[in-house]
Structure formats: C-alpha cells, structure tokens
Amino acid sequence: MSSKLIERRTYDDWKLFCEQVQSSTAVNISETKADQQARIKRALSEYNYFVKTYFPIYADVDCADFQIKFANKVVLEKRPVDDPNLIGVAEWPREHAKSVHCDVLIPMWMIAHKLLNGMILMGKNEDDASNLLGDIQAQLQYNSLFIHDFGEQYNFGDWQSGDFTTKSGIRFLAIGRDQSPRGARKGQRRPNYASIDDVDDDELVNNQKRVKKIYERIMGALFFALDTRGATMVVAGNRIHAQSVLAHIVGDIKPGAPVRADIYHSKIFAIDPKTGQPAWHQRYTRELIENKVKKAGTVIGRKEFFHENHVEGSIFKDSMIRFKSPLPLAKYKMIIGYFDPSFENKVTSDFKAVRVWAGYATPGGLWEKHCLKAFVRKAEMQKAFEFMSDFEDRCPAGVGVLWYVEKQFFNRPVQDALYNHNLKRDALHKKRLIVSTDTRVKENKYLRMVKMEPSYTDGEVFYNLNEIHNPDMIEGNNQLKGIEPGYSSPDDSPDADEGAWYYLDQHKPGRDFKPIIGRRNTRRSW
C-alpha cells in the first residue's frame, strides 16, 4: 500500500472506539481492596492476564506464546548495567497483532510498571502514526479498570495533532518515516520507548536509496533520540521485500547472511516450520491459514504470512515447476521416499527433508516423475519418521514405499530415533518403518542437483496439485529454485529429490534392474 492512501481517522470514529473501551472495562464497585491488589500483582507478572483483564476489546483469545515472550523481553527482563538499551524486531505475519502489542499493550504494561518515560511512534506518515497513537490515548483516557488500578493518566494534548502528555509527564509523539524525531524530549526527560510500525510498503521497497535513508534515520536520529541510560526501540512488520527497511535492521538482506547479534529478533511464521502448527494456535487453525493463502495466491500469501519474497530461480525456474492431479497410487510403477536428515551443524543444513516421488510410464512411452508429498521442516527426527509412517498407513493394500536415507547421515542418533519410532509402532500394532541406506559413492552435490534440470525442461516432472499450498511442498520447491552457482541457501529438499530420482529411475521401463535395497544395520531389528 502506498503511504498516500492513508488518511487520519475521524474524531467520530475515535469517540466510538473510546466508548467501546469504556463500556468493556467497567469497575466492580463491590470488590474488596484485597481483590484489587491481587489483580494488580498478577497483572504485573503475567502479560496474558494483564491483556485479558484490562483490554478485553483486543483479547478475544489468549495471547500467543511469541507475543508473551516479546513483552517479557521488553518489560520484565533485567538488562546489563553497561548495555541497558534494547532493539527488538517483531517480524510477525499479517493478522498477528504486531501493532496492538508493540504500539498499545506493551507501552501500557510499561506504564503499569512505572517504566515508561516517553514514547515515539513512527508510521509510514504522520497520519498513520497518529491513527495508531489514538488507540493508546483512548486507553489512557477511557479504560476505567486500568485507571482504577494504576491511576489517572491522560493530561493534555491530542492524538489528532500527534502529540499528547500524561499527568506524570509521559509524552507521546507521532511522526512519519520521513520526519525527524529530534526535539522529542519533554523538558529534561527523554523518551525511553519507540515503536516503528509497518514503515515498509510496495512503493518504498523498490527504491533502495529511500530505504537506506529511512534505515539510517531510524538507527541514527530516532534511536539516539531515546534515553541512552536505558531505552527500547521495537520494529514491527512483516518482510515484504528481501531488502526492506525491516530487513536492513535485522541484517540478513542476502540469503545466508547473519542476523545482527545486537538485536532481539522475534521472527514468526504463520505456520511454524518446526512443528507444522499455527504460531498463534489460540486464534488460527492450519486450515484457516492455508485456505487464505490459497485464495490470495501462493506468491502473495507466502509474502504476507511467511515473509517470503518471490525470486525467480536462475536454473530451476517457476515455469518448470508444474502441478497436476496425482494418479491412484496403484497405477505408479514405483514409489520412492528419500530422507535427508541434514545432521550437519550448519546454518544452511538444518531442515529435515523427506520427499516422496512416484514413477509413471505413460501410454505414449514417457517416464514421468510425480512428487506426491513433502516434509521439509526444522523439526525433530521423530517428526520425519512419523510423516513417513503416516504416508505408508494411508497407502491402499498392495502399494508400498521404498524409503532411503543418505548413508553418511545414518548414524547413531538417526538409528536411535528410528528404533524408538518403531517401538511406538509395535505398541500400536502397526507396521514397522523400514529405511534402507543410499550406498552410492556420490559426486559433488551441486552437480548432482543441477543434473536434474533436463528432466524439468523436458516436462517429465510434476507436483501434486492437492499439495500446491502445503508449506512443506512450497519450502522444498523454494529451496530448489535457490540452487545456483555459489548458493548459500538451504538445499536439503533438492538433495532428497536427487536421491529419490536416482532410485526411481532404476525402475524406468526398459531397464534391467534389480531393486537396490542397500545394507541394513544388523545391530537392531528395525
């Protein structure tokens, strides 16, 4: 959205919001002083309780774990005497309450703790920032229960002018991203909290000169307008571009680049890549998120919910990744599942990748490879084995899967995880998972993966249309598109693809092949 489209809210709209705040925070006049003190004590120590008690207008469900953790980091965590300043980045998906927490609830919790000296709120422009500031002024003026427990707050000034002050001298100032925050202090009192809210937009991120200028203003004039003796600057937004203002503040503007060590980076995906579950499970189901991504389109949906910025691959391009409905499993000549545990201690090798491929000989004599299912997550080993067994359990009678794992990774931790997985299967009277090792002497990984390109070019490769919006399938295909000379992005999924293809192609019609099962470890019965 362009900043030109943002208009200041009307006073009538704001008054209606104030009435809703007031009516939702009535004080129980019959409660005892002890009840009140118990509520205050708990509210100061438990962020979720604080939010649900004093701000029911926002809290129809519990706070997410990541929201609580971020608030605790800002308000409760003790900081070193020689480093009392915090830069926190809330890189959260759309509809995950970035603005509410960073612009309203966390500052209100700081006021309850008597920690807030002043606040600067930066938006795309001054109108945007003032609109956001209006919410916190409404709480300070009309939240009856908060006022009852923590005292009268509002004094003078108006959110419409982007500037107001509380009775205790806390000044709230709204500025646009192109404005200077200099002169923000109230007398000798410098603000100790700043929130930069969604300053990126589609127009800005395509002008890197402006992006860098705003980045320098935030890290220079804004950060240095805060109290050096102890202050917090939070940046809230989702990553709509690989080199957005938010990305520059985090530091990882290029694939594989490290996050700045001196910031607190809370990066949340709508569906957690480690668990496959919604990050804010108290509000959303996986189906809700996937259906919204589907309706918006994968490229747009992944940008808004998963911070993914579409980049065309240089070798494996979008046009090569074709989808179609899968065949009944019994029609495939062979189904191969390949597991890359990626047990190396590298930043780019931390995904567990399982890709299930099936071979189909068409009536016209073509040999097609169909990707039926994928598991590509930063997850525990057991989750990958559970995925593999679940796929087998769903296969119809007479259909099986040959599972392979790369030999170099079939070490003691992997063997132990498989052993424990099969113990659980035994207890449930279910079929054991049999995994064979890939015994090949392999050539260079990059060369092996690049050699897959002709199959894509020749139109032999298809992906399951039913999985087009599945985050695991999308992650795997994004890793494939990232393979290029000098790449530093994760490659676990395309590496698993190459392994599966090798064994799948042995079953291509016309080849005299005896299935290679590989050496199985005889130390235990798997």
Mean pLDDT: 88
Largest beta-sheet details: 8 strands, mixed
CATH class of the largest domain: Alpha Beta
Radius of gyration, whole Å: 28 Å
Report the count of strand segments: 15
If you consult CATH, what is the topology of the largest domain?
Answer: Rossmann fold
Terminal-residue CA separation: 55 Å
What fraction of the residues are assigned to beta strands by DSSP?
Answer: 15-25%
Architecture of the largest domain in CATH? 3-Layer(aba) Sandwich
Low-confidence parts, pLDDT < 50 over ≥5 residues?
A: 1-6, 345-349, 513-526
Shape: elongated
By helix and strand content, what is the structural category? alpha/beta
Q: Percent helix among the residues?
A: 25-40%
How many helices in DSSP terms?
Answer: 17
| Neighbour order of strands in the largest sheet | 3-4-5-2-6-7-1-8
Question: What would you say about this model in short?
Answer:
With 526 residues, this protein is α/β, with parallel strands linked by helices. Helices cover 36% and strands 16% of the residues.
How would you describe what is shown here?
The chain is of the alpha/beta class and 526 residues long. It folds into 2 domains: 3-268, Rossmann fold (3-Layer(aba) Sandwich), CATH 3.40.50; 319-505, 2-Layer Sandwich (Nucleotidyltransferase, domain 5), CATH 3.30.420.280. 36% of the residues lie in helices and 16% in strands. The chain is built from 17 helices and 15 strands. The chain has helices spanning 11-23, 33-45, 47-54, 65-75, 98-112, 126-142, 144-150, 208-222, 245-250, 286-296, 298-306, 381-393, 412-427, 445-450, 453-457, 471-481, 492-505, and strands at residues 86-91, 118-123, 154-158, 163-166, 171-176, 193-197, 232-237, 264-267, 323-324, 334-340, 352-361, 367-377, 402-406, 435-438, 461-464. The strands form 2 sheets. An 8-stranded mixed β-sheet has the order 3-4-5-2-6-7-1-8. Strands 9-15-12-11-10-13-14 form a 7-stranded mixed β-sheet. Strand 6, helix 8 and strand 7 form a beta-alpha-beta unit. The longest helix has 17 residues, at 126-142. The protein is elongated, with a radius of gyration of 28 Å. It starts with 10 loop residues before the first helix and ends in a 21-residue tail after the last helix. The relative contact order is 0.09. The model is unreliable at 1-6, 345-349 and 513-526 (pLDDT under 50).
